[in-house]
Specification:
The chain is an alpha/beta fold and 373 residues long. The chain contains 14 helices and 14 strands.
Amino acid sequence: MKPKIAILSNIAVWNIRPEIPRNQVHDMPWLYAFHKALQMQDIYEIHWITQNKYIPRAIHFEEQGQHFHVLPKARLMIGLYTMYAHDRYVTARELRKIQPDLVHTWGTEDCYGLCGKDFKGKWLHSVQGLLNACVEYAPMGKFFSIHRYYEPQVLRKANFITTESQWAAERVCDTAPRPDIKIWDYAVEEQFFRIQRNLAPSPTCLYCGSDSQIKNIQTAVAAFSSPELSHVKLLLAGVSPEQHPEYPANVIALGKKSREEVASLLSQAWCLVHPSLADTGPTAAKEALTVGVPLVISSHCGCKQYVQEGKTGYVVEPRDVQGIIQAVLNITQSRDKCLEMSDYARNLGQNTFSLEAMRNGIMDIYREILSSV
């Protein structure tokens, strides 16, 4: 019999079965990519467990050789103030039915890390975001400010931990010092491997994300408000124009964009600007590299490990306005310079963030954990 792996996460099952109600705003594309990567293996029996507050009873189905268990979920605020008592109970009951050889949980921003903590067998936890690191650098909402107190319980108890970057591993160690964290990065969706570069006629940079304080877009806006960058556009995908009428003419808030629209914007962008104060990834930077878009990225971001200075982009301090200005000027000095950097970025991204790379990495980790005493 194949060993059983139970994966506990917020995977967007409505992308697999449209009749299941959408349960969250963000689809977390790395989880869907993981689902696709696991279709390329036949060693383990895969069971996904996820929860949905809009269903009255459990839904079970099989897709592409993987089993899905969608369980009723308590409302978020009830979960928050009860340490997810209901969600942990229904998950533990499902795990007793499955009898997995290994439980693999994703993230400390919901119930799944705590569900892993309850499991009495081998447990692997993969970091998505780190609430305590975010709260250290910027104010967060009430939910995150309370929920962050649950995070250390998961990080200190987990048998094995993976992070997508060395920066994230160091932030885990701020909370739970340990020598055995494995760096395992996440794939991007297949559509980003097929996009051809089609640079905008004039220098145009892109930011993808929200305008929350942790993303620090005010530093990017300050840089592009400088006369030195008045000839360069900054497009803000995911930022509402109604909320920011004060932006200069070359800084354009585009509002929410679909995944297809983001892909098109990346094809035209001369570089991606991401000045976040704390980011374990970010996914947008991985997508950019895969398309071939050079990065101007904060030193507080995980993807800084992929930046070869002057080849795939530049790393700047989070609030270094002049650093962003100089990096953007270097990349946009000519189309030839930008396209030269694009070739480096694309080669790196397509080798690093493929489904095959994600699959190979997790197969090694699963094999090591299951063979351990």
